[in-house]
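Lab manual, section 2.4: Encoding a predicted structure.

Procedure: take the sequence of the chain (533 residues), apply the prediction step described in section 2.3, and record the output as structure tokens. A sample record is shown.
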Amino acid sequence: MKLLPSLKSASLAAILATSVAFPALAETPKDTFVIARNTADAITLDPAETFEFTGGRVLANLYERLFLFEPDNLTELVGGIAESYEFSDDGKKITVKLRPGLTFHSGNPVTATDVAYSLGRAIKLDKTPAFIIKQIGWTPENVDEAVVAVDDNTVEINILADISPALVLNLLSSSVASIVDMKEVQKHEVDGDMGYGWLKDHAAGSGPFKLKTWKANELFILEAFDDYRHGKPTMNRVVIRHVAEPSAQRLLLEKGDVDAAMELTADQLKGLAGNADVSAQQYPKGYLMYLATNMEHPVLSKPKVREALNYIVDYDGMVGSILDGQYKIHQNFWPSGMWAASMETPYSYDMDKAKALIAEAGVEPGTKITIDTLNKSPFKEVAQNIQASLKEVGIDSEIILSDGKTLWPKYRARKHELIVARWGPDYSDPHSNADAFAHNPDNRLEAKLTGKLTWRNAWDAEGLTELTNQAAAESDPEVRADIYADLQKKVREDSPFTIMFQAIGTFGQRANVEGFVNGVTSDQAYYRNVTKN
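Recorded output:
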């Protein structure tokens, strides 16, 4: 991959000139959509491994899945590569017919063999997001028999777990189920790695855009795919620039150097008022911000301490200041605006109650803990607010700020004490978050169930694992909703999690841009409908 000059010293014109010729720019090219965002969390582009927000957004435009949510309607699951499907009478098999005539970016045809290979590859590599489709009962040993290419356009999907087929369709809409070009990937296989080394910074998809360049912590360049099934996108390319500071993003937006700035603060968004060239945008966002305690910690694992954490959070104060316009109070593991979400918010800032609970727990004054979080706003400010509240109840804390490449592996290895973190659904079914916040079939360290927040925080979720399984297998929607309401209440009242806020998606955009779609989940950011007038 060709290395590009650092964005710290290079103009957009110079960057683009490394792959296409452009004159000096006073604004972005008419056929190029340029985004400023903090991309520090991007560590891989392999669909079998990607589990970060930036990577998920990029994959949504490079790859397609059997089933997905189109940008025209983010509430209805439809076929992507799949043209039609049929459930067997016993609900244990789904026969899927593929759309004819689809091609990958390489020019290779999209076939049922690619589907079987892609799903099997994700299971066999068994990276963090594999847990999503492992719920179907697939293992490295059985997946080749479970997902079978009947012919070039037909694939049989066998359900080997006690879950409903409707839930399976949602599982197959997640990024880990992206369909890769088997022939292209196998060309780059090294020592039987199924292209794992190569796909970290390359792509082999059939989505609306092809990957031209990825330079970590600098930029992505995506190029339009001429033979995409919906037709070639209007934008010939999409450039995602790594700009860590919101103030720098705003400056670039107002100067016209970027078309969208994804992480502006509330004050910066308000500051756009009166500028006819830019506008503040909102979109539904399912990301949650939460506190989590490592249940192996001798102090933080105490029930009274965990209860006290619910009351040290200045919910209203932070929403009214550092989180203004970007987050709202939400205290349940399934985001509002989605089916079966609980809207109960029983906790409020109450230091007297928190102090009493800490005293009941027998915590020694001056007890020291660490708080891990991302080195970006608003996470560091939220951590500082919590640090101040902990000080009031007699607990001294040190904040450890890290980028995503450092923080998430540490969290997945259970090396934290208290963490301010975020989580978003992997697909639009409450089982997505229930499986993370309320399900842990094996709490042993060697189990390495890194995709489950229960396991990351060493919590066995006693009783809730079985209840989560019951909800997943239930076919009656009303009964499922009741079970999820109960699960959300139980997690809220006794777990390692203090769920605090739900994100409100906001960003700044140039006035001449239309059609940029952002959905609830991280893999519902779509660039193919973007136009400029």
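Check your result against the sample. The chain has three domains: 1-60+207-277+511-533, 64-197, 285-505.
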